[in-house]
């Protein structure tokens, strides 16, 4: 009796155990408790068979890992230039997703990515025909990034690493300010922010840290390059660094704001820019008048020259002007530039005009600057006029001293139309036409008188992959027309 009860109890326990096991295990096991017990006793714990779906997952995971290992092994065998090209091309897959984000969020993410090194780094040398020397500094190429993208100098190293010949940070104001109310950026896919700044102190800390790192690298370097050779790069790293200075919106003494910027930031800059052309700071453009500009430039130059400088001397000083200027305004600016021996002009900022068909768009009523295709011809015409107004006097100065030359630079952020523009220095009405940007467009500006070219809109829309593309196309344009260097192409359409 006790034996039968014990046997029944054992069978019941085994049946319950089997019901709790996976289906394949129940199929594998015998319904007989003694058989199961015998199997368990003879061969140890039963090994369950995995479901068919699990096998597929294991195979897929293994295949993926194998492909990654094989891809990594293959990548290690290709040359650095090819691998670098792959990395830049890969950004084309990511960049379109930024269009689905709020413009300022997309801008913030882009700056953060560059600051943290999440962008490709250019390892390939630039075409030799693109190299040029300006202000005694060697530019590996004439394509730079305009002010407004990295306002607070957060990502200088990462942006220069993308292959830009130079990067301009700012505009930097003495006191932190948030800029104009949002929304201040508008996307119009079929039609082509005041300075928000963390302030001088925050920017100076970042630039000081970068400058110190650069000096440390130079000291520890074992390079045997000649000291007489003009090296690529400047104070921030492999490229040239420009610092764009602005005034606070509520400031009553504009000159004092710019002077403070010079005293604090000029030691870290390869060149300085006085921005007097933003359409979003009240009264700023009035400083473009002949008397006002002359007084301002004199004070800024005096502040710069009173500082102690090494063998390289003080950083060159440039002025950024607007496209909404009369012929007389342009003549006055040219006269001041030549009389005070300015080192350059940045032509141009955005326009407050609303030419057709932009004028018919509801957003045209928004205050602020217009950029894109409608401004392309306007800015090019201003560039040609300023080149003609300054070139003869500049050339005569070059005969005696290169320091007298007025070099004309073009700001491409106001000359390239794309789906949207990431610009945060004002309440901008962005009405830009959808338009491809190429090295041919940059070449047009150089032939119109530009020595260097700045990108903004094109970079925001096209991403890192656009940089090597523009440089390659620009080199082809120069060679196609029989020029041996960029110098020969500058102002070719004005001769």
UniProtKB/TrEMBL annotation:
SUPFAM superfamilies (alphabetical): FMN-linked oxidoreductases (SSF51395)
InterPro entries in the record: Aldolase_TIM, DHO_dehydrogenase, Dihydroorotate_DH_2, Dihydroorotate_DH_cat, Dihydroorotate_DH_CS
Protein name, as recorded: Dihydroorotate dehydrogenase (quinone), mitochondrial
Cellular component terms per the entry's GO annotation: mitochondrial inner membrane
Keyword Flavoprotein: yes
Organism classification: Eukaryota, Viridiplantae, Streptophyta, Embryophyta, Tracheophyta
Recorded GO MF terms: dihydroorotate dehydrogenase (quinone) activity
Membrane spanning residue stretches: 58-75, 392-413
Known cofactor(s): FMN
GO annotation, biological process: 'de novo' pyrimidine nucleobase biosynthetic process; pyrimidine ribonucleotide biosynthetic process
Cross-referenced NCBIfam families: pyrD_sub2
Annotated keywords: Flavoprotein, FMN, Membrane, Oxidoreductase, Transmembrane, Transmembrane helix
EC nos: 1.3.5.2
Family label: Belongs to the dihydroorotate dehydrogenase family. Type 2 subfamily.
The reaction(s) this protein catalyses: (S)-dihydroorotate + a quinone = orotate + a quinol
This protein's record includes keyword Oxidoreductase: yes
Region called Disordered, residue ranges: 211-242
Subcellular location: Membrane
Species the sequence originates in: Escallonia herrerae
């Amino acid at each position: 009796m006790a034996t039968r009860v014990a046997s029944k109890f054992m069978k019941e326990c085994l049946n319950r155990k089997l019901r709790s096991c996976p289906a394949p295990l129940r199929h594998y096991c015998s319904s007989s408790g003694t058989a199961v017990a015998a199997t368990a006793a003879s061969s140890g714990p039963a090994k369950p068979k995995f479901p068919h779906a699990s096998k597929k997952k294991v195979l897929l995971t293994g295949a993926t890992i194998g492909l990654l290992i094989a891809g990594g092994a293959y990548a290690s065998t290709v040359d650095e230039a090819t691998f670098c090209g792959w990395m830049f091309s890969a950004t084309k897959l990511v960049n379109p997703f930024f269009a689905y984000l709020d413009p300022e969020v997309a801008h913030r993410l882009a700056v953060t990515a560059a600051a943290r090194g999440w962008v490709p780094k250019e390892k390939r040398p630039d075409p030799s025909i693109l190299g040029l020397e300006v202000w005694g500094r060697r530019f590996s190429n004439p394509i730079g990034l305009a002010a407004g993208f990295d306002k607070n100098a957060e990502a200088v190293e990462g942006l220069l690493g993308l292959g830009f010949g130079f990067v301009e940070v700012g505009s930097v104001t003495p006191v932190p300010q948030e800029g104009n109310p949002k929304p201040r950026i508008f996307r119009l896919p079929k039609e082509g922010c005041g300075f928000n700044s963390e302030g001088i102190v925050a920017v100076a800390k970042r630039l000081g840290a970068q400058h110190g790192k650069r000096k440390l690298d130079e000291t520890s370097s074992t390079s045997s390059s000649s000291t007489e050779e003009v090296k690529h790069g400047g104070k921030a790293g492999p490229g040239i660094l420009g610092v764009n200075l602005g005034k606070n919106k509520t400031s009553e003494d504009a000159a004092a704001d710019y002077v403070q910027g010079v005293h604090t930031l000029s030691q870290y800059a390869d060149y300085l820019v006085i921005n007097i052309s933003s359409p979003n700071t009240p009264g700023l453009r009035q400083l473009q008048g002949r008397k006002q500009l002359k007084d301002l430039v004199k004070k800024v130059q005096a502040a710069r020259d009173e500082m102690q400088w090494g063998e390289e001397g003080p950083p060159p000083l440039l002025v950024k002007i607007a496209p909404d200027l009369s012929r007389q305004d342009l003549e006055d600016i040219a006269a001041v530039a030549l009389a005070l021996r300015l080192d350059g002009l940045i032509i141009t900022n955005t326009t407050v005009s609303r030419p057709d068909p932009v004028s018919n768009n509801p957003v045209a009523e928004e205050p602020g600057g217009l950029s894109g295709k409608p401004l392309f011809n306007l800015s090019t015409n201003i560039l040609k006029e300023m080149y003609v107004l300054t070139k003869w006097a500049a050339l005569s100065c070059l005969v005696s001293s290169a320091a007298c030359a007025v070099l004309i630079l073009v700001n491409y952020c106001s000359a390239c139309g794309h789906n949207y523009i990431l610009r945060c220095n004002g309440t901008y009405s962005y009405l830009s036409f959808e338009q491809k940007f190429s090295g041919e467009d940059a070449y047009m500006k150089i032939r119109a008188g530009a020595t260097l070219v700045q990108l903004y809109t094109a970079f925001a829309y096209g991403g890192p992959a656009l940089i090597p593309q523009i440089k390659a196309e620009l080199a082809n344009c120069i060679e196609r027309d029989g020029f041996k260097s960029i110098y020969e192409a500058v102002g070719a359409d004005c001769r």
